[in-house]
Protein: L domain-like protein
Organism: Anaeromyces robustus
Amino acid sequence: MKFNLLFKTISLFMLNTSYLFTRAESINECNEIKENWGNYVSQCINDSGKASEITIKGGITQDLINKLATLSELDTLSFVYVPINDELNFRPLRNLTKLHSVSFDNEKRREYDPFRVRNKLLKYFPNLTRLEFYHVIIGKSALDEIGSLTNLKSVEFYKTTFDEDATFHSFKLLSNLKYLVIESYNRTLKRVSTSLNYLTNLETLEIKANGADVAFISHSTLENLQKLRTIDITNDVGLNLKRIGCLTNLVYLRLVCENTTSLPNNIGNLKKLKELSLYGNPIKTIPDTIGDLESLEDLYLADNQIESIPESIGNLAKLKYLNLARNKITSIPSSIGNLSNLQRLSLDGNQIEIIPDSLENLEKLDHLSLENNKIKVIPDSIGNLKKLDHLLLSSNEIESIPESIGNLESLQYISLSYNKVQSVPDSIGNLNNLQYVYLDHNNITSIPESLKNLSSIRVLNTSYNPIKSE
Ligand SMILES: *[C@@H]1O[C@H](CO)[C@@H](O)[C@H](O)[C@H]1NC(C)=O
Ligand SMILES: *[C@@H]1O[C@H](CO)[C@@H](O)[C@H](O)[C@H]1NC(C)=O
Ligand SMILES: *[C@@H]1O[C@H](CO)[C@@H](O)[C@H](O)[C@H]1NC(C)=O
Ligand SMILES: *[C@@H]1O[C@H](CO)[C@@H](O)[C@H](O)[C@H]1NC(C)=O
Ligand SMILES: *[C@@H]1O[C@H](CO)[C@@H](O)[C@H](O)[C@H]1NC(C)=O
Ligand SMILES: *[C@@H]1O[C@H](CO)[C@@H](O)[C@H](O)[C@H]1NC(C)=O
Ligand SMILES: *[C@@H]1O[C@H](CO)[C@@H](O)[C@H](O)[C@H]1NC(C)=O
Ligand SMILES: *[C@@H]1O[C@H](CO)[C@@H](O)[C@H](O)[C@H]1NC(C)=O
Ligand SMILES: CC(=O)N[C@H]1CO[C@H](CO)[C@@H](O)[C@@H]1O
């Protein structure tokens, strides 16, 4: 006890003296900057007196630039709403070899009010690993300067207006680049060239560029991008995906491409793929090879024109989420019952008539959604889905509810609105977790006491039924 106290006293004393020493030895760079340029510097973070992170806001002067050039420990520099005119000289900043991250952020609420990224600016940040742009205008020369920053690992453009002559040609030289985001504003980007296929260390690529010709993806050099794990592209001109199968290390593939109508068979080569998301494309068929995607956990193909689900889908042993809502599917293959890890299945807005019995094998299924189809019968086998907590069957042609519904012990939410149900079995009263029950717009004449008495119920909607009052 005593020893402990003594120890504490000594260490406290040591702390105090070292604090005094640093105070005495060095002046605090941030204090100095705030005193002299306080109206332009909105944030300055120091590490034992040395400025490490600075945010310049609203404007900048040459003497501030000169001062910045002396901050030997500066790591991160952000420009927020800073218009940069041609008279300013950024050359002195080339001495800042520890400066790793620079961002230009002109994002204002609601309005789009970008500043141009001037030439002879970016090239004076020699050791950058990260460069970010929000709401800027940029042209060829400034983009070319980025190509000289060969230490870059991450470059991000958000809501960027690209000049007509914009090209990523110089990006060829960025052999350390791992992360690239290109989001164009108002269809200003015309082309994403094949230069991107030189980026052999690229791991993540996000392109949101409607109106642009995304040329790199269909070019034979695409296969250079073997480190690529994530592709996320939004584009309405049409992506030619014929070579996608060469990216065998892909883990996430997310595409929103209005004019893309088919998937190539070689998609099956993507053995590491965990997520395939093709939302809102006019795709008509899913190739059989989809069943080869042995790592797939999440398959999201809502809002396409898909007419059938291949039998091979049953091979996706790791699949957890399957969403094929709003397509033109007429039947569910019985192999669906092989998806033993499936947790969520959504097939809303199709033309499905039959729920296959094999569905009962989906032991982990907790969410089943088949609204807006042409289903007439709920099979007895549904009662085997012990994990099911949401069952959505509104807007079908269902006439009866099986007794086995009372076995869905996890069920919390059931909707059967807009069907032709005539009666509700007493067994529904066994469902002690049931909270939301939608039975409106049916042909039900009486509601069982057992359901009315369930204490867990929060909503029981029986409107628009010919219920006889007793
Ligand atoms: C930048 O570095 C050069 C030589 O490395 C030196 O002569 C010059 O004074 C430095 N500039 C500033 C602003 O520190
Ligand atoms: C920083 O840049 C200088 C000049 O370009 C270079 O000599 C140095 O190796 C770089 N340092 C790091 C850590 O990248
Ligand atoms: C978008 O681009 C079009 C055609 O270039 C132009 O007429 C329009 O003013 C732009 N809209 C905005 C909000 O910048
Ligand atoms: C999409 O394809 C259609 C038909 O080929 C074409 O008319 C349309 O211009 C394309 N859309 C774009 C944005 O290129
Ligand atoms: C997959 O499903 C089909 C149809 O239900 C069945 O015949 C087959 O045995 C299943 N395969 C496996 C590996 O479970
Ligand atoms: C409603 O149910 C009755 C029998 O209870 C049946 O005669 C009638 O056709 C049903 N109406 C509709 C619209 O399904
Ligand atoms: C429901 O509750 C009422 C009164 O609270 C009781 O008379 C009736 O027996 C209960 N019915 C069932 C099926 O538990
Ligand atoms: C029940 O459903 C009808 C129509 O579907 C709706 O108008 C009504 O507000 C709902 N009532 C409750 C209690 O949710
Ligand atoms: C992070 C850091 O070191 N902050 C210091 C900056 O300088 C002030 C004094 O001027 C200290 O109070 C901070 O702890």
